[in-house]
Write a structure and sequence with these properties.
five-stranded parallel β-sheet; binds pyridoxal-5'-phosphate; alpha/beta; 22 helices
Length: 496
C-alpha cells in the first residue's frame, strides 16, 4: 500500500518516503491509497495483547515497508518504561456503566502528544535509512505548549536528528515554559520568541520556504523537518489507542466483540479525531465520533452546516491546545469524503487561503454527518464540567477533557443514544492548575509549579512524576529572539 497526496492523487510513494518528507510538495497531506482491514478475529487476538504489541500490529497494517520485528522494537521502546509509567500507555478509567475516559497522558510530558511523539523519532530515523537520506534532520517546532515539550522528549539524543523549539515568550503557561526550558539532551534547543504564537508559527513556515537557508543547511548536511500532525508518522500511532481501548472494553467484559462504541474527542487541529475515523474505516466497530470544541468552534459550525470559515473572532481559552481556527488535518477528511478527489480538495484549500472560507457539497456534508457530530462547550460549561466530574465521581479532568465530557453530556441529552462511550482524556489536570483550581472553587496564591502541590492536597490526586520533577529545577535555556532573528538562531544551532 502506497501513499498519495490530498492535492495530487497521481503521487504514489512508500510510507517511509511519506514520513521522511512530511508534507507533499503540492502543499497536500499524505494518506494511504487503500486502507487495510481490521477483522473481528484480529480484534479478538489483540484483546490478549499488551499496548506495545497491539501498536506493532496496527502500525504494521499501515507501514508495509517496515518489518514486523523492527516495529516491535520501536513500540517496545516507545511505550515501555521509563517513558510511560503505567502498565498500559493508554489505560481506561471507568466513570459509570457506559462512560469511560481514555487516559492518554501517562507519558513523559503528561499530554497525549507523547503517544505519537515517543515513537515518531524511531519511525523518522528508520524512514531516512530506508530512503537512503544521509543528512541530519533538523526538526523545527513552533508550539503554544504541549507539542514542543513532547517533541523535545521524543527527539532528545536521537542519532541523526536535532530539534529546535520556538515558543511565544508570554504565550505559554508557567509549567509549560519550565517543562521546555529545563529540557535535557545534547541535540536540543529551546528559544523564546518575543511575540505571540501566530508569529512564531509564521516564522517557522518562513524558514521552511527560505531557499537560501535551505541550501546553506543542505551544504552542511542538514535538512529541515517538522514534527507536527501534518506528518502521517504522527497520525498512525494515534489509531492504535482507539483499537486498544476497544480491546480493553472487551477484556474487562464491558462489551462483546462487534458491539459499537462512541468516542468523544476534544479537538483542535483535527488530528486526534481523524485517527479515530481511520480506526472506524479499517473496521473498528465505532458508531459516532463526537467532535468537541471550545468557543473557537469553527469545527462545530462546519460539521453542522458544511461551511468552514476562519473569518471569526479568535478567543484565548482555558483549553489553549484547542485554540485554533485552521484545523489542518480536516483536509484529509475532505479528501476522503469527496471520494478521493484531489482537485475538489485542492479547490477548498485554495478557497480557504484566498477567501477565508469554503462550503462543501450537500453530499459531502451528509457523508461527514453520518459519523461526526459537532458540539462545543463555553468557558463556563468547561469549569462546571470539571466540578461536576470531581464532585460526583471524585475524578479529576483537565480543561480539554472537560470540554469533551460536556459535549458527550449534551449529545446524550439530545439524542438519547446510550451507546457505550469513551471520552478521550488528552492532558493531566496538573498542567492547568490555575484553571482547575478555579473550576473547583479553591483559592490559591502563587503560580505554576507552586500550585501543583496545592491541587494535589485539595483533591487527593497524585502529581504525575514528570511534573513533580520540575520542582526546584533551574532553566537551562534562556535565549529569546525576535521573529526576524529566528533564522539566524537556526544557523547558530546547526553550527553549535
Ligand atoms: C493537541 C491537543 C488537543 C487537540 O488535538 P488535535 O489532534 O489537535 O485535535 C487537545 N487537548 C490537548 C491537551 C492537546 O495537547
Amino acid at each position: 500500500m502506497n501513499y498519495q497526496s490530498t492535492r495530487d492523487s497521481k503521487i504514489s510513494i512508500t510510507a517511509a518516503r511519506a514520513i521522511a518528507q512530511g508534507l507533499s510538495a503540492d502543499g497536500g497531506l499524505f494518506l494511504p491509497e487503500t486502507l487495510p482491514r481490521l477483522t473481528p478475529e484480529m480484534i479478538s487476538k489483540m484483546t490478549r495483547m499488551g499496548y506495545s504489541e497491539r501498536a506493532s500490529l496496527v502500525l504494521s497494517m499501515f507501514l508495509e515497508d517496515f518489518g514486523a520485528e523492527e516495529l516491535s522494537t520501536y513500540t517496545g521502546k516507545a511505550y515501555g518504561s521509563p517513558g510511560f509509567s503505567s502498565s498500559s500507555a493508554a489505560p481506561l478509567h471507568k466513570l459509570d456503566s457506559n462512560t469511560h475516559f481514555l487516559e492518554l497522558w501517562h507519558g513523559p510530558t503528561s499530554a497525549f502528544k507523547d503517544i505519537a511523539l515517543q515513537i515518531l523519532p524511531y519511525l523518522l530515523s528508520a524512514s531516512l535509512k530506508k530512503t537512503n537520506d544521509k543528512r541530519e534532520a533538523c526538526i523545527l517546532v513552533a508550539t503554544s505548549g504541549d507539542t514542543g515539550k513532547a517533541a523535545l522528549e521524543g527527539f532528545r539524543d536521537v542519532a541523526g536528528t536535532r530539534i529546535m523549539v520556538f515558543y511565544p515568550l508570554r504565550g505559554v503557561s508557567e509549567i509549560q515554559r519550565l517543562q521546555m526550558a529545563t529540557q535535557s539532551g545534547a541535540n536540543v534547543n529551546v528559544v523564546a520568541v518575543e511575540s505571540n504564537f501566530d508569529d512564531a508559527q509564521k516564522g517557522v513556515k518562513e524558514i521552511f520556504s527560505d531557499e537560501t537557508l535551505r541550501e546553506e543547511l543542505n551544504g552542511k548536511g542538514f535538512f529541515l523537518s517538522s514534527a507536527n500532525s501534518i506528518n502521517w508518522g504522527r497520525l498512525v500511532p494515534q489509531i492504535v489507542y482507539y483499537v486498544s481501548s476497544y480491546c480493553d472494553l472487551i477484556a474487562s467484559g464491558e462489551i462483546s466483540t462487534g458491539d459499537r462504541v462512541n468516542y468523544c474527542v476534544p479537538t483542535g487541529n483535527f488530528g486526534n479525531i481523524l485517527a479515530a475515523w481511520y480506526a472506524k474505516e479499517i473496521g473498528l466497530p465505532v458508531s459516532k465520533l463526537i467532535c468537541a470544541s471550545n468557543i473557537n468552534n469553527v469545527l462545530t459550525q462546519f460539521i453542522n452546516t458544511g461551511a468552514y470559515s476562519r473569518e471569526r473572532p479568535f478567543y484565548t481559552t482555558m483549553s489553549p491546545s484547542m485554540d485554533i481556527l485552521v484545523s489542518s488535518n480536516l483536509e484529509r477528511l475532505l479528501f476522503e469524503a469527496s471520494g478521493k478527489d484531489s482537485a475538489v480538495t485542492a479547490g477548498y484549500m485554495s478557497a480557504l487561503s484566498n477567501t477565508g472560507r469554503y462550503e462543501v457539497t450537500g453530499k459531502m456534508r451528509d457523508v461527514i454527518g453520518e459519523t461526526f457530530t459537532g458540539l462545543y462547550a463555553s468557558e463556563d460549561d468547561t469549569k462546571k464540567a470539571i466540578a461536576e466530574v470531581f464532585n460526583r465521581y471524585s475524578y479529576l479532568v483537565d480543561t480539554h477533557t472537560a470540554v469533551a465530557y460536556k459535549a458527550l453530556r449534551d449529545y446524550r441529552e439530545t439524542t438519547l443514544d446510550d451507546t457505550p462511550s469513551i471520552v478521550v482524556s488528552t492532558a493531566s489536570p496538573f498542567k492547568f492548575c490555575e484553571s482547575v483550581l478555579d473550576a473547583l472553587g479553591i483559592g490559591y496564591s502563587g503560580s505554576g509549579v507552586d500550585l501543583i502541590d496545592r491541587l494535589s492536597e485539595e483533591t487527593g490526586c497524585p502529581v504525575p512524576e514528570p511534573l513533580a520533577a520540575l520542582r526546584g529545577m533551574e532553566p537551562r535555556f534562556k535565549e529569546a529572539v525576535r521573529v526576524n532573528g529566528m533564522n539566524d538562531a537556526v544557523r547558530r544551532f546547526v553550527e553549535s
